[in-house]
Amino acid sequence: ALSHWCIFHRNKAKQVVETWQRQFYCAPRDQRICFLYLANDILQNSRRKGLEFINEFWKVLPGALNDVFNNGGEFGRNTVIRLIDIWEERKVFGSHGQVLKDDVFGRNIDNRNRNEKGITYKLKQPAGEQLEKLISGYNHVYGLPFDEDTLFGNYQAAINYIEKVQKEHGNDCKLNDS
């Protein structure tokens, strides 16, 4: 019922996720898995209606997953692995599911094997806030499903075109980075 209430109020996704994050870190360690399950339910059931929760949870989930993976014992580790596998399989975070997986597993493997060669991954937002705005705007205007990689490619092509025009005409026209 709580996840449905959150989804109903998706226009307040930022505040909902901020509250989720505060309560997650205030909760006793053995109850944090319940918060991950709540996030999972919200993510999977809200994605048909918009990207608000996906964008907001993308910012806070890596830290929460790492916390449970490192401090939740065997059950916590198994839960994190299972959730990440589900999100990757169902493409909850689009093509960025592998980044989340690499962040959690790469960071934890690197922490355990300091003497071995390893790669540490830092989680980046999927192409930053501009891409989030683009995706949200596209979804709002067209209300259609989209291929994130194609959309990002079109976005990058537009930027390249603008930069080409800018070079051809000098610095008379400036790009607005805001």
TrEMBL record:
A Gene Ontology CC term for this entry?
nucleus
Question: Does the record bear Protease in its keywords?
Answer: no
Keywords carried by this UniProt record: mRNA processing
MF terms in GO: RNA polymerase II complex binding
Indicate the segments forming the CID domain, all copies.
1-109
Among the GO biological process terms of this entry, one is: mRNA 3'-end processing
Q: Which PANTHER family match?
A: ACTIN CYTOSKELETON-REGULATORY COMPLEX PROTEIN PAN1, CYCLIN-DEPENDENT KINASE INHIBITOR-RELATED PROTEIN
Task: State what protein this is by name.
Answer: CID domain-containing protein
Give the species this sequence originates from. Musa troglodytarum
